[in-house]
Amino acid sequence: MASTPPGYNRPVGQGPVTREQEKAIAHACPGSAVAAWPREGAVDAYWGPYKRVLSGRATDELVRFEGSSGGAISGLLIHALESGLVDRVLHVAPDLEDPTRNAIAISKTSSEVIARAGSRYTASSPLAQIERALADGGRMAFVGKPCDASALRRLGEVDPRVSQHIPLIISFFCGGIPSHAGVGRILSAMQVEAASVREFRYRGRGWPGNAVAVTDAGRAVEMSYAESWGDYLSKEVQFRCKICPDAVGGVADIACADAWYGDDRGYPSFAEQDGRSLIVSRTDAGERLLASAIAAGAVSAEPLDIAEIEKMQPSQARRKRLVFARTLALRLILQPRPRMDGLRVEDAARRAPLKDTLRDVVGTLRRTLLGRRSRL
What we know:
Blueprint: E1 2-4, E2 8-10, H1 19-28, E3 43-44, E4 48-49, E5 52-58, H2 61-66, H3 72-82, E6 88-94, E7 102-107, H4 110-115, H5 130-135, E8 140-143, H6 146-156, H7 161-165, E9 168-172, H8 180-190, E10 197-201, E11 211-215, E12 220-223, H9 225-232, H10 239-242, E13 254-258, E14 277-281, H11 284-295, E15 299-303, H12 309-312, H13 314-332, H14 345-349, H15 354-369
Helix pairs in contact: 1-6, 3-11, 13-15
């Protein structure tokens, strides 16, 4: 995987690929097909399959503070390591050579998990070294975007090593991947030279936490989450993310998100406050980990009515309603789109106002024909 302008990761051929390798790649790639949600059990058209829905937090205040919301993912990972469920965590961390970018990381201790906590709003490819990770054996937890979780589940259908060595897949609700040009614009607004940055956090250390650039000279410059995401990063999200049928990590064992509090208008408030995570256990494996972490005191949580999620994550609900309209536009002009069977796309679309559906069909047609997919 290599970064291509304006800063999205794309596959680059390094040599010949066998027919069997090509089949495995085509089967797993979420650009080709997205893993279906299970048919049995409780499944919501917006929020996917679920065993339990909770709001909660890591009980360790440092873990809670360092994480992007309530530190639930970090708390669960630390418990999985300390309980012996896994011997390591495969996830992403700041690139040591360029801290605004991401690199694959292996964490084996709680301190490593904490040091790598926090959202990373730029391109990441945590599965780029999955062959090596599987060959190393052992038992690992995997943390990635919903599309990464989908790719890993579908890889597991053709490679039995996945279920053997990865007993836990954790994901999160994803707003889409911005190009790396987005953080470049943030640095410009901060009046910070990219070459001088020795540390960059997109958020965390509080909730939601500020974007922070620390220079070689020790100068720290901050920007609020509302400004960094709302004015810069969200405008750089790639087109594929705008048609994602499962941005909520529906095939992970556990998915977490920001359990935003509503403001006076009922819309999520980004005012700084104590972190709170939305936690959704989706599989038996996820439920066992969650129950164990709560019993051990690593995570505290309270039941949450699933209907409350839309108040916390209204943009996720809106996107799911409009995926059908956007992909319909692509079908009309014979453009490729991933297979989305078994993801309740049509059910969600029935909840969309007709004017919104028509607007997005026309808007997608116009932007695609004008070659402006990245700005949909």
